[in-house]
Specification:
The protein has six helices and two strands. With about 110 residues, it is mainly α. The chain has a two-stranded antiparallel sheet with strand order 1-2.
Length: about 110
């Protein structure tokens, strides 16, 4: 059983990312509906909050995060045209080669 302090703040971080958090029936279990970019934003926000009781959530989400496809990476770059390779790697957990390829491809569009 894991306990989080200031859960209302954690829920606010999740909702601010655009993800949907809800209970599974009447149980104590929760269900998170989010895409890869939303999960990345949640993880970054949890790490910046420096709340020790939330770190298990960030670790769990980091482990569950799926790698983004080439098109999803390209969409992310198109939404943030000033993004650097390092920022793209941090957000998407892609490799440096993938980040450079997507940035080059976005430059020619």
């Amino acid at each position: 059983m894991r306990r989080c302090f200031d859960t209302y703040l954690l829920k606010a971080i999740i909702r601010d990312s655009g993800a949907h958090l809800s209970r599974k029936g009447r149980s104590r279990n929760w269900m998170l509906i989010a895409d890869a970019s939303q999960i990345a934003k949640i993880v970054v926000d949890i790490e910046h909050a420096e709340q020790k009781s939330w770190q298990w959530v960030a670790t769990l989400l980091r482990g569950q995060r799926q790698s983004l496809t080439q098109q999803e990476l390209l969409n992310l770059v198109q939404r943030n045209p000033a993004i650097s390779a390092t920022q793209l790697i941090q957000l998407s957990d892609c490799t440096l080669a993938q980040a450079r390829k997507v940035l080059d491809e976005a430059e020619f569009l």
